[in-house]
Amino acid sequence: MMTEPTVSGSRRLAGAAWILAALAVHVAGRLAAVGNDVRTDSLLYGVSAWRFWSSSSTAGDLILDKPVGQMMLTGWIYHLWPGGPSRISVVPVESAFMLAACGAFWLLSARLFGRSQAGWTTLCFALGHNFCNALDPTTDGLNLNENYTALPLVLAGAAHLLVDRPGRRGLARGLAGGLALTIKPTALAALAAMMVHDLLMAVRQSGWRRLAVTWVATAAGIVLAWVPVLVVLAVRGWLDQHIADLLAHAPKRVGPVGLNVMVARALTGMLPAAFCMAAGLLIMPPRRTDPAPTGSRDPVAFAIVWLVCETAMVCSLTIPALHYCQNLAAPVCLLAGAGLAAAHRGIERVELALRPAASAWLVAALVTTTFMASSMLVGAAVIRARGLDPARDAREFQDWLLHWTPRMPAVHPEARP
């Protein structure tokens, strides 16, 4: 029989292994994205960011249907990166945001479900994001809006679930959600999920005063997050033009499309998370007596609402792109963490002699589903890494600068060599 220190050490070792696997998935995803032959989005956002940080920039260099936040956050790297600018120049900034999102998700999962589940759910989170962006048939997966919104949306979700005082909770999630909105308007889905969950909690607990304080503080946080963007645009004299462009072009991305086929494809990258949700329901079905994790505000209910809102957002976008499904990863992986925690509780209730076998089967299933989901990503990384050519990337970037057409929405033809 294992002693308690041995069990604790085994769990720490398993958690470290899952975290290392998440780092490997991130590297594979970035290699697959950088090596993709389709380069439109990374060049579009990269050149616009370069132009934004150039002294000769104009309002016409902004992308018509996207807020300017991403360009502000990324364009400075070109002035620090050695040599000429290219698509690869932005990789350190993008990786910093994506890895920080994984770190924030680990902290949230550890707080909600315990450290033994946090490493694995973080791997699922990294896999879901990298699968959906690097294997998108419509773009290359590099420097996408969703790669940057992942961090503030996780922080907003953490504030919503873990901060008790309504004013502080609203301000924190408003700041984080507002930052995400400066990058892409689809961040509204997460904020909408928080408001719906607020209403459900208020109805259950009669907390209407807390609800009002939370919503006012959230609105204040969103406004504060937008202040730097608005000030920079106003100082440059671009504010009116940019707002007019957003109002005219951003709504064109939304329409009565129906179920997006890419949602089904995204589930391939989230297969291990889906397995854990099923395992939790089968091994230990939810009961009303099961308490929520200590210090949280019913994360399962919130994750369900969040997933519904994100799915509705993806299905309302007119272009069926897989990278839009990246925002599904956070709520899906929260549900997976709850499922895995429930599965562990269920295993602890079986006969003592059967627990090692049950745990071994669960771990084997997790490893198998994770391998199945990651094999496509790793395969793409191996194939595409052979074609990496930094010199070609630099030449292509310069060609886009030379042929740059201002005042274009985020669907841009490839620049001609």
Write the layout of secondary structure elements.
Elements: H1 4-34, H2 40-52, H3 69-74, H4 91-113, H5 115-134, H6 145-162, H7 166-181, H8 188-205, H9 208-236, H10 239-249, H11 261-269, H12 271-283, H13 299-316, H14 329-347, H15 355-385, H16 390-402
Keywords, separated by commas or semicolons:
417 residues
Protein architecture, described:
The protein is globular, with a radius of gyration of 22 Å. The relative contact order is 0.16. It has 417 residues and is mainly α. 69% of the residues lie in helices and 0% in strands.
The radius of gyration over CA amounts to 22 Å
By secondary-structure content and strand pairing, the structural class works out as mainly alpha
Biggest sheet character: none
Q: Give unreliable regions as ranges.
A: 412-417
Ends apart, CA distance between termini: 68 Å
- Overall helicity: 55-70%
Q: DSSP helix count?
A: 16
On the 0 to 100 scale, the average pLDDT is 88
The count of strands amounts to: 0
Oligomer: single chain
Indicate the overall shape: globular
Which percent band covers the strand fraction?
A: under 5%
Order of helices and strands: HHHHHHHHHHHHHHHH
Summary?
The chain has 417 residues and is an all-alpha fold.
